[in-house]
Amino acid sequence: MHDDFMKRENQFDGNDYQIVEYSDVFSLNGDKKLKVKNLGERSAFLNLYFLDYLKEYNIPSVFVKNHSKTELKFIKHTRFPFYIKILNIVDKRTSKIFAVKETESLHLPLFEIHYGDGKDSMISESHLIAFDLCSNEDLKIIYRICSKVNAVLKSFFERRNFLLAEVNCYFGKYEDKIFLVDDFTPRSVKIFPINKDGKFIDPYKLSSLATVRHYTDHLFNLTSA
Q1: What's this model's pTM, rounded to 2 decimal places?
Q2: Fewer CB atoms inside 10 Å of the end CB: C or N, the chain?
Q3: Is CATH 3.30.200.20 what the domain over 11-75 is classified as, yes or no?
């Protein structure tokens, strides 16, 4: 979870539910942060929309309902301290390693494990086991859920003439079962038009207030139409 982008409050209601508040702050590369009007409200809406949508495909989630315009309610759970980045295109790092064209579509998705928000956050399965962050069996379940999330969302965006380039998935445990938690925000969900005619904001180059707002509005419009 990007703490500056999504503020996680330690708030619980009487039924032991966890309340998550989404802020208007968007962090650029480095220490620069932008305050984008209605970003928290729209990020909450996008998570609400996609978590509800994925539930229709029997993807397990601890999401319950919206609590306010900028807050969502989840069943209290233990969150894994890492996330899975799903890539459907060749990113800059992969392009350099394997000498393939950047942004080229992949026949099979790549799953990367990331710990923390730094540039060098990628870790291996061995790290998870060595530091007791996750069991082999839990990771197998997480990968299965990721495969299904990716297939469902790829189809969702393709029907709207967009390619899902990347999405980050966070997970938690409740009563020894693994559930999808988030993250379906403008920072995590990266899409490109299948037909690249005309102008479109590159989600990998959100560097100003205007580009963040434009891309966020576009995701919002796709899901609220």
Answers
A1: 0.91
A2: C
A3: yes
